[in-house]
């Protein structure tokens, strides 16, 4: 049975942005806690826009252009709608119809690009189109979630919440995409606990930590580029979780704990539960980035899972493989096998 450690503050929020951007801290097991977001990427989107407005680089009516096929685009669309900035989101064909409709209902223009075979794959193609649009619209603002240091800096607010509710954390587990959430939250938590261990979660086919590039069915983590916001020296361990493992853990998170979350949350739970079980004396915090409603026709749909050869499969031994990560994006995994991630 889960236990909510803190209740939301008793206040009237000034906007849906303020009401939604911070997580609930929930106890899952004796030493495992979850930072449970409704829409995690709303936080850095709002923070980046705030900082740009304060600096004068984003003024009323300034066009905003960004690349996303997921929740950063949705968070940014909510912020831009609230602040009155016209938004163009450059995505790729994997963007689902429901998300595209939500973006467009918020006033965003969605432009889809195809993989043209350049290095960096579809994400490089999306970034190239963003740059083209930026040149076509002088004075526009590009948030730049992959390289803007305001992305990780936004998570200092989450560290403040964790410190005020849970207290000291020994291990932080989270998925890695842009590098903002895990890197930013770890940096802020390490200000009060330099010994915090940071465990990143990636997926096969992502090149972030040096693995070979390939197709990725598990979306919302991993990348075909090396984001500038990934601080490779910050991670103590990296685990690669397959789609079957992540989808099984996503279902288990709901069946066992009533948390209806997306597949990146399942991937985080897969690794965090494994780590917490092997380190019972440590307080472990996992990041659950978004809720499951967007995935009801995919990750929670048996026909879709069978069609993609991704029927959820448990892995009782833990993540398929893990390693002490390289400190550069091209060095590649150092080793494979269970047990590598255990603390000395």
TrEMBL record:
Cofactor(s), by name: pyridoxal 5'-phosphate
Domain Tryptophan synthase beta chain-like PALP: 40-290
Recorded superkingdom: Bacteria
Keyword entries, A-Z: Pyridoxal phosphate
Gene3D superfamilies: 3.40.50.1100
Gene Ontology biological-process entries: alpha-amino acid metabolic process
Signal peptide start-end: none
Annotated TM spans: none
Protein name listed in UniProt: Cystathionine beta-synthase
